[in-house]
Every structure is written in structure tokens, then in C-alpha cells.
Amino acid sequence: MKITAFKTYMQRVDDRPRLLVKIETDERISGWGEAYNHGPDWALPPLLAYLFEQIVGEDPRRVEFLVLKLHQQCRFPPGALGLAAISVIDHALWDIAGKAAGLPVYMLLGGNVRDRVKVYCGVYTAPDPEAALAQTSELNERYGYTAFKLSPYRRDLHAGRWGELVRQTGDYFGRVREITPSHFEFAFDAHARIFEPYQAIQLAEALAPYDPYFYEEPIRPEHIPAWREIKSKVRVPLATGESLYNRFEFLSLLTAGGADIIQPDICVVGGISEMRRIATIAEAHYVTVAPHNPMGPLATAVNVHFAAAQPNFKVLEFKPHVHAPWAVDPYIPVDGHMELRPDRPGFGIEIDEKALERDDYIHWERKITRKPDGATAYP
């Protein structure tokens, strides 16, 4: 079997652009992947065309060999765009390997260690407690979710006194706990918007009395000693990792004792191959893995197969999609879990190529925050 061609399709999932990639072979077996849109969106197709020249004519089932080759042809470590491109190639190759073997990808990873994959739903805002009850109850009734993620910010964190925001956060979570079912789990994503570590610690203390599922990414990821300091002083599970790129960065975080839960993104770190190395390092530090997954149906399918085979997997982020017409049969939660598809080879998801013929691109860009004094900040 040899790689013969690749195609890219700029599409969207709900209100975000998504680049889909198809790799074809001379045996009419093809594989699919979904690329992370770090932006600029249109930078990825020419980059993928360049990388494709490194693997055309090769056996696609030699996934580790080909991904290693792509890394080694880069004189310097690839950044966000380079790793997004390598990740989507990795995914498509695993899809081909599974289809060629007639097996689900998770069977090629050593087989499933669990029968289904737990998911949580990102709400991403801080709705009034009564609205949060209504929203989470609907998600529970429809999909069986019992775990959710909220924002800890009830207002602009740069407007007004910080201590007042902290108090409001504690009061808010207390009220949410009071009126929602006791078995519901609530995580809080601070979205790396806090600059001072002591403020991250104060916010964690406001959440602690009400048992958060985890406290995600209060500060930026770059300075590992700050994560060690925060983790040593908080009483809640600390999670981070969506902005880290490879096993070496995660090794630094874990050896510093900087997290209880890591959140690598399988579309960012280089694909399944690198994701498994990262997870193994975490396992050796008694740390669990909750993959970052704000993506579409294809990326979710890849995550499900990784999670099925990974012993220290904890929970997968997944928000149901409203608009992704190219995904014929996406994975959808049942009883708060994704069911495995043992009778389907590859990632077990069908792509409607007819739907991809229609231009469905939507432009999106991240907006920065402006502080009251006019300075910029992370959104």
C-alpha cells in the first residue's frame, strides 16, 4: 500500500472554521483527520502540501515512522501550525491503518481498557444559577451528562476589585451546588486570564468549599515554577495542558509537580503517537488525562479511540454540535459516555464527501480583551 494523494476541505463546525484532510492510497483506502484552527486558517493547506511531499509513496501503515520523518525534516521544533499539520496527518494515517487491518484504531493501540468513554460538556459561561440548573438538566436528560464545565467569572475580571470577584465566584458556585443534583460535577475553566499566581490561588480557595471537579488553566503555561507554587497551595484538582505542545513540556510540568490532571490536545501535540507518550509520562506521575477537545466530530472520534485504550484517561471534553453536515454518524453521548464501535474499522465515522463540495467556510478570529486603562490582555 502506498500514499498517493491528499485533499483539504475548509469547512466549519457550528461557528468555527475546521479544515478536514483526506489522505488517499493506491488500494482505495483513505483516511481522514481534522486540523486545529490556531489561525490564520488558510496557512494550513500550503503547509500540508509541503509536508505531503515528505510522505507520498510511503506505506501509510508505518505511522510512527512517517510522523518521526515529518518531525525530523524540521530543523527547528515545529510550532502551533506545524504541529497542527503533523497531527492531522497522524490521524489520517491511523484511520487508514485501522481500515486496512479491518479493526478499530483502539485495537491497534493495544485494545480497549474500558467499555465506554466518559464525557463532560463545556458550558464555558457562568449563567445565573437557575439558568445553569435548566441547561445542565436538559443536557443530562438528553445525553446523560453528569459533568459540566463553567466559567468562574461572573463579570469582567479587569473591572472592579479582585477580592469582590473572588467572593462572587464563591457565592455563585455555592448557589449552583445548592440547587443542582448532588451527583453533578462542575469544573471551572479560568482560561489562562489571570496573571498573578496569588490571584489564581485566591480564586481556587473560593471554589474549594463546594468541591469542583477540577480548576483549569488559571494562568499562562510558560513558567513552570508558577504552576508548582499554585498546586502546592490549592485544595482543588489543578488541570492544565491545552497550550503545551510535546512530551518534553509535559515532562517539565509533571516533574515540577505542577498539575493533578493534564489536558493535552490530540490535534495540537502531534497526534495519537505523541499523545500516548505524554499520557504515559503522566501515568508515571499518578496524573490523569482529560483531553482538551473543543473540536468537531472527526477530532472527537480520534479522542474516543485514544481514551478507550489509555489506562489513566479521566474524562473527555465534548459539546454536542449543531452544524457539521459532513459528519454522517458522529459520536454522540449516551448516558454521559461515548459508546465504542467495535464493528467499524478505523475511527468508525463516515464522511459525506458530497457535503464537502459546498463551500461552508466561516471566518473566525480571537478577540483580545482591553483593560480599563487601554492595555490588552488574554481573552
Automatic annotation (TrEMBL):
The keyword Zinc does not apply. SUPFAM superfamilies: Enolase C-terminal domain-like (SSF51604), Enolase N-terminal domain-like (SSF54826). Pfam families: MR_MLE_C (PF13378), MR_MLE_N (PF02746). It comes from the Bacteria. Keywords: Isomerase, Lyase. GO terms for molecular function: isomerase activity; lyase activity. Residues 129-237 form the Mandelate racemase/muconate lactonizing enzyme C-terminal domain. This is Isomerase. The lineage of its organism: Bacteria, Pseudomonadati, Pseudomonadota, Alphaproteobacteria, Hyphomicrobiales.
